[in-house]
Amino acid sequence: NAGVTQTPKFRVLKTGQSMTLLCAQDMNHEYMYWYRQDPGMGLRLIHYSVGEGTTAKGEVPDGYNVSRLKKQNFLLGLESAAPSQTSVYFCASSYSPRGGEQYFGPGTRLTVT
Amino acid sequence: AQSVAQPEDQVNVAEGNPLTVKCTYSVSGNPYLFWYVQYPNRGLQFLLKYITGDNLVKGSYGFEAEFNKSQTSFHLKKPSALVSDSALYFCAVRDIRQDVRFGAGTRLTVKP
Questions:
Q1: What DSSP string describes chain A?
Q2: Chain A residues inside the 8 Å CB shell of B100
Q3: What's the rounded Cα separation, in Å, for the pair A26 and A110?
Q4: Using CB atoms within 10 A as the burial measure, which of A20, A61, A91, B31 is most buried?
């Protein structure tokens, strides 16, 4: 039981390049989330999904897109990376929309130069 | 929209002393409140949550938190701190919608 996994762990992009971050969970959770963590700002929700085929915007969605084609996977895309997107990205999943705690992946450290 | 405030960026305590990490929240309706801990270069780990019921919630590693509706607070506590408790602590709140708001985090340092 791996829990929540994220690939890649590290990535360096140049401004304007694109990439996709993959999140996978093996706990059969319906709900999945993408956050970014920046110093002094805690975690900010980018997008989330309440089930396969559904996505919704969070607090800071601009510049990101997501897809949930399979229940166990949640992809985060950057179409044209900007230095402001330099951050640590965390994926999480939960079994309940309100009362369920979230299970987090180990994070992806992204640097955009 | 819901929000969370952690008024202290840093909390320092001596090993063996009690610790408190503060959290206040703003939410419409009944809150769902959570505490998470983050160790260096790791993802967040769940500590405890308040959904309903008893205002004193017990969680992992000897931590507990007290829900105070009138003060809209959910402070994290531990009777006797350990050096290994040193980490970054996050409070989070969820309302009737699906998304979650996290506080900015409080760095706890426990000195021997």
A1: ---EEEE-SEEEE-TT--EEEEEEESS--SEEEEEEEETTTEEEEEEEESSTT--EE-SS-TTEEEE-SSTTEEEEEESS--GGG-EEEEEEEESSSSSPPPEE---EEEEE-
A2: 33, 45, 102
A3: 24
A4: A91
Nearest-CB residue to A98 (from B32, B46, B90): B32
Residues of B in contact with A50 (CB under 8 A): 98
Q: Quick one: which of B61, B78, B63, B62 has its CA closest to B17?
A: B78
Residue B86 contacts by C-beta under 8 Å, 6 or more apart in sequence?
B108, B109, B110
